[in-house]
Design brief:
The chain is α+β, with helices and mostly antiparallel strands. The chain contains 6 helices and 16 strands. It starts with a helix and ends with a strand.
Length: 416
């Protein structure tokens, strides 16, 4: 519109100046019989018409009126007037086209390689992360506990990388009273040298370190729940400390995993309550494909009295096509009390969605007493009926001092 107004004003001034000179020199000039018309549907074509039909009152706009007057006064020829009109129309349409093009053009933000505000980048770094979690709903009938529905677990985890060799994990238990389960930073300069700092699982017992969402049975065995460090004090196998771990592969079928850690020994979210640090070590060797042998050791002290708290564990695991075998034997000592227990598990994959499982386990909380062993035998199946949905059913018996009691557990699990 600005260009249109400028051209209009210029034409008007030109017309006034021309007429003043024309009348002064020669007087008024006669009007020709016919004047070419200015309008055409094609910008490159000038149509012909009678001058009498092209009056100022019949023009479409003020600009057209002015152009007609200029043609009648012989200031412009018909071709020149048509050309001016086309230019005005193009100038009027150009801003609209440019605005439309801007609306269609995506906004491209400055890339990392270009100039940017470094202070803002440092204040708001880009930290990719993943949110995941799972929930478990159970219907159980256990000795001494009766039959009940319960929400067994509801956990949310946040994982991410903050450097090419550093990552973090934060996991909370959202049921009942929120509890921080995991909060650690892990440095991975190499596959055989990883450093972990914070609160995490103690490297002891293969069934202990497996996530609760990946267990083949609904609950862990008695001996693991009773003797695995961290679980024996009600801290879900976790403690605060530091860990050095890694893996080494000698060949395609043989490898070794190891872990050494130092912990408070007091459990989740607690400071050390004595002057001793607890030590944990784990070594697993895969001599050939499918077979794994492992040993675990834990030495610590409990309470201000620094009561001796030691654990040893021997493990075996074997996988061959649809068959999985797994077993552990754990010895423990708490002061003057010596405990021990074991479990053996077998699983068979019938298909991608169906899996059968059997487990036998026994636990003796005090080896100095007779008739103190509790044995449990359960069988069941796992049905992976959707990508993130699993239903488990376990049923069996528990025996103590020649007394048999029924055990029934059913669990529905969802993950996200």
């Amino acid at each position: 519109m600005r260009l249109k107004n400028q051209i209009t004003a210029g034409l008007l001034l030109m017309f006034i100046g021309y007429n003043s000179r024309s009348f002064a020199a020669d007087g008024p000039k006669p009007t020709p019989a016919k004047t070419p018309a200015l309008w055409s549907t094609d910008a490159n074509t000038v149509s012909q018409g009678a001058a009498s039909s092209c009056t100022a009152t019949a023009a479409d706009s003020e600009v057209d009126k002015l152009l007609l007057i200029l043609v009648e006064k012989h200031v412009l020829s018909a071709d020149e007037a048509a050309s001016v009109r086309v230019e005005l129309k193009s100038a009027d349409e150009k801003p609209a086209k440019e605005r439309a093009a801007l609306r269609r053009t995506p906004v491209i933000l400055p890339s990392d390689s270009g100039h940017r505000d470094d202070s803002r980048s440092e204040t708001y770094p880009k930290l990719p992360f993943t949110i995941s979690g799972y929930g478990q709903i159970q219907w159980n009938s256990l000795p001494g506990a009766g039959s009940t529905f319960q929400l067994r677990r509801g956990r949310i985890s946040l994982d991410g990388d903050i450097h090419k060799i550093a990552n973090y994990t934060i996991q909370v238990e959202a049921l009942n009273m929120p509890a921080l389960l995991d909060a650690y930073l892990q440095l991975k300069p190499a596959s055989f040298a990883n450093l972990t700092f914070g609160q995490f699982k103690i490297p002891f017992s293969q069934e202990n370190v497996i996530s609760s969402s990946d267990l083949l049975t609904i609950e862990r065995s008695q001996v693991v729940n009773s003797l695995a460090p961290g679980r024996d004090i009600g801290s879900n196998g976790r403690d605060i400390g530091a860990d050095f771990s890694g893996s080494y592969s000698a060949s395609h079928s043989s490898s070794m995993d190891y872990a050494f850690g130092v912990f408070n020994g007091a459990g989740i979210g607690r400071k050390d309550n004595n002057n001793r640090k607890d030590f944990a070590a784990r070594l697993a060797i895969r001599s050939f494909q499918g077979l794994s042998l492992a040993g675990d050791y834990y030495s610590g002290a409990a309470g201000t009295a620094e009561l001796v708290r030691d654990r040893q564990d021997a493990e075996i695991a074997y996988t061959y096509r649809p068959l999985l075998l797994r077993g552990e034997f754990i010895w423990g000592r708490d002061g003057a009390i010596h405990e021990q227990g074991w479990y053996g598990l077998a699983a068979w994959h019938f298909s991608k969605v169906w899996e059968g499982v059997f487990r036998a386990d026994a636990f003796n909380p005090d080896r100095s007493k007779t008739g103190n062993i509790t044995s449990t035998y359960i069988a069941g199946f796992n049905w992976y009926f959707a990508t993130h949905l699993k239903w488990q059913l376990n049923e069996g018996t528990q025996s103590r001092q020649s007394r048999l009691r029924n055990v029934f557990l059913s669990q529905l699990q969802f993950k996200f």
